[in-house]
């Protein structure tokens, strides 16, 4: 997303009305907010499934919505470049929406389908907190990362949080094959921890890694 200009800063400061926050939104920000809507809706759908395990439509919708959030996440930057505009809130909105759709929603999905032991929940909490730390670091350091000719960063430091869609895909496979609840995965526990939650722990470590550099596509 383009860097806010002095005009953006003045516009944000000068608007003092009750709905000045809304007036400072740009079109790209609406796409970012839709990313957050998808993440929150995924959490609600997971909760519906917790209330009724026979409601398969709810769990499938919960698995689909983070992918929809990714589409909006990809579009917001393109819209900002197309419109050649950005808001003061754009980068912060993007990180907060990503945390919901690709951090909290996948972790709650994992809990929903059966990763509920104490160790499981520690792993899932660590996953969300690592995503939070990774996004905060990105906002603080993105200006210092090497740029290409177009002004975009050449790589990510640590695994980007939208990569958690791979974990969502794995959970979708487990739901599709009916290997959920006490059977995640392979029908066994290892000291009250599901092996798949270890993957969440490794993912968390990769997100906060300083030395892992993921090229931007």
TrEMBL record:
Its EC number is 2.7.8.8. It is an enzyme of class 2 (transferase). Belongs to the CDP-alcohol phosphatidyltransferase class-I family. Pfam families: CDP-OH_P_transf. NCBIfam families: pssA (TIGR00473). It comes from Wallemia mellicola. Signal peptide: none annotated. This is CDP-diacylglycerol--serine O-phosphatidyltransferase.
